[in-house]
Amino acid sequence: MNPQESMIAAEARIAEARALLAKPTPESVENCRTALSDAANLLEKLIVAGVAGWTPEFIGSLRQLQTAAQMLDGQVRHGSRFCMGWLQSRMGTGYTERGTPVMIEHAEGQTFEA
What we know:
3 helices
């Protein structure tokens, strides 16, 4: 696989991860993890191969991949904040000055079920 093909494949795996996270389930999150692992492996191989043969088109693909990764990062961060906010509203007492949730200390043996 040439560098351009590897970049396109990595971008496709990231797009797949974004689609999987749009409707999260335990299975889709696991499949997302696999897709991101595949993308990381493709990108590692590109790094190991070095910059020889990188064309202007390839550099353009790198920028597209960066944009796709930034969008995925925003999606993951939003989901994480949503989950933390949901837990905080269920178990918390407010927020610190830095904006992090303050959780209620529960007695030993108490559990939380979602």
